[in-house]
Structures are given as C-alpha cells and as structure tokens.
Amino acid sequence: MITWQMPAALAMGLFLLGLVGLLARRSLVFVLMSIEIMLNAAGLLFIAAGMRWGTPDGQIMFIFILNLAGAELALGLVFLLRLRNRLTTLDGDAANSLRDA
Amino acid sequence: MTAVFYAAAVITLMTTALAITRANPVHGLLNFVMSLLSMAVIFFTLGAPFAAALEVMVYAGAVVVLFLFVVMMLSLDMRARLREREWMARPVWVLPILFVAVLGGLLMRIMFFSPGDDVAPVIISPQAVGARLFTTEIGAVELASMLLLAGLIGAFHMGRK
C-alpha cells in the first residue's frame, strides 16, 4: 500500500533536481532537459493526487502537461537551432544582447 | 507493489541526477530515457496504467527522439563523426542497461508473480480517463489543441531560413 506522501516527496525531489540542472547548466540541451524533468515531476504530483482521491482527473491533467511539454519542446529546440546557427554555440549566456552589433 | 515503487523511485532519482550532470548531451539523454522509463513504472504502481503507457510513448519515444535529432544535427563534420564513435564506450552504457534490467525484472514481477493483496489502492482504467476527458473536460481538450497548433505554427515560422 503506497500512501500519497511518498510520490509527492519523489516529485519534490525530481523538481529540485530539474531546478538545479536549470540553474547550474549553461548548455541549452541540458536546460531544455531540466525543464522536461520539472514538468515530469509536476505530472507525477498530479498522478499521485489522482490516486489519493481515486479520480481520473490526475491522469487528465497529466495528458495536458504532456501537451504543454511537447509544444514547449518543439519551440525550444527550434530556438536552440537558431541560436546555434547564429552564434555557433549552445551556451545560453552567449545570447545576452537583443541586437547584434 | 510497494517494493517495486521504492526501487523505481531510487532508479528515477539516480538516473535523473546522472542525466543533469553529464558533460556529453548523448550521455545525458541516455540517462534521461532511463529516468522516464522508471517513471512509467512508478505511474503503473500508482494505479495509472494509461499515464504509464503515455509516458513511454510520448516522453521516452517522441520527446527523446526529438532531442536526439537536434543533438545529431548539431555536429555533422568528419571529426565529430570520429568523436561520436567514442560516445558509446563501455562505462557509458553499462549502468543504464543494468537499470533497464532491474526495471524489466520489476515489470515481470508485477505481471507474473503479482501479489494479490498488495496492489495499488485504486486502478483508474483508460476507459474512465477517456470518458471523462471527452465529455466534461472537452473545453480543455480544445484549448490543448489550440496550444499544439500555436506550437506548430511557431516552430514552422521560426524554423524557416
């Protein structure tokens, strides 16, 4: 028997790992991966809540989070390719000026 | 089921920590796939089989393949090709394969030696999710389709030369 606290704690741990990755890494591939990890942790929390109350709502919210992650990832990867074509780097900090000199 | 949950939770945390600390994007993605697969096992133990299937298909399938496409597009010259050969050295794939074996063993245990008294509290079937999703939550489905259309148009516009 799994109570809802353990998946919630796991979701918190995963979210913190994703946040650390988002703050510590500068390569945009890892930044996008960290965002996916954080969205995944949020989905786990919804699934745990759906289990706690025994309703399908948790899985429905998980499907919407999946949608959101897909749309966000498509745009993020396009921006990554554009940045790499323009600045020939994957370092997010290199794109710190709005107008190229 | 509780033991399966804890084992999968430990694997998820370990592979996620490995994924965000690798220097090489392909190594990070390999560990990320492992983290997603063990997350699917966790969803299964929480009584959400439909979400587990979606996690494997959409996240471990589509999302990671999209990542891999972009990573492979980033380096296409000959030197990079020689370097790619070194990416899959033995220390890189031994640990993920070990984790996959553990996860497969956990799934086998669930399917064939399932202890009857120790299952998830409530198993929410895909029928229940679908019936709820396309009746009372239909407005949110329309909003999600708008979001996907916006993402499609945005990616198409930004991806043009």
Topology:
The complex is a heterodimer of chains A (101) and B (161).
Chain A: H1 5-24, H2 28-53, H3 57-87
Helix pairs in contact in A: 1-2, 2-3
Chain B: H1 2-21, H2 25-45, H3 49-74, H4 78-87, H5 90-112, H6 126-133, H7 138-159
Quick summary:
The complex is a heterodimer of chains A (101) and B (161). By secondary structure, chain A is mainly alpha-helical. Chain A is 76% helix and 0% strand.
Account of the 3D structure:
The complex is a heterodimer of chains A (101) and B (161). Chain A is mostly helical. Chain A has a domain at 28-88: Helix Hairpins (Orthogonal Bundle). Chain A is 76% helix and 0% strand. In chain B, helix 1 (2-21) packs antiparallel against helix 5 (90-112). Chain B has helices spanning 2-21, 25-45, 49-74, 78-87, 90-112, 126-133, 138-159. Chain B is mostly helical and 161 residues long. The radius of gyration of chain B is 19 Å and the shape is flat. Classes of the chains: A mainly alpha (101), B mainly alpha (161). At the A-B interface, helix 1, helix 2 and helix 3 of A face helix 1, helix 2, helix 3, helix 6 and helix 7 of B.
Distance between the termini of chain A: 62 Å
Tell me the total number of β-strands of chain B: 0
CATH domain class of the domain at 28-88 in chain A: Mainly Alpha
Largest sheet of chain B: none
Shape of chain B: flat
Element string of chain A (H = helix, E = strand) = HHH
Low-pLDDT sequence parts of chain B: none
Individual helix count of chain B: 7
CATH architecture label of the domain at 28-88 in chain A? Orthogonal Bundle
Helix content of chain B: over 70%
Total domain count of chain B: 2
Most extensive interface between two protein chains, with residue counts: A-B, 56 and 59 residues
Poorly predicted regions of chain A: none
